[in-house]
Prior knowledge:
The structure is a homodimer.
Chain A: E1 6-17, E2 23-31, E3 37-43, E4 50-56, H1 58-70
Antiparallel strand pairs in A: 1-2, 2-3, 3-4
Amino acid sequence: MSDFKYDIIKSIGTISESPKGWTRELNWISWNGREPKYDIRDWAPDHTKMGKGMTFTKEELLELRKLLTSSES
Amino acid sequence: MSDFKYDIIKSIGTISESPKGWTRELNWISWNGREPKYDIRDWAPDHTKMGKGMTFTKEELLELRKLLTSSES
């Protein structure tokens, strides 16, 4: 894997948990010391490994919230 | 890329748009004819290419909505 650092500034919550204990979480993460971004990602138990994920700006999360609350999705 | 089919059953909305016209969207997508899943993904203009994304179950989106509405994130 590439050489990068991350820092979970704020743990916002868990979205789901797999039978093997991986959790899908929403966090506020600083990557390589940069300004933190919101991050939805799968994590191994105790955060020993990270899986696939996406980062979001605050504006994107606000739009997403709007979509999730206005539709019956 | 691998050989797969997808069908956007329902377009729920756009989360953001990049300067190059790629959109980050929430859709309800059937992959390879399977039961549809919610999908957050980046798309090129006119959906000619798809970028990185994640799929979510309905339960996951409901949890995510809960996190987004209960925090001031």
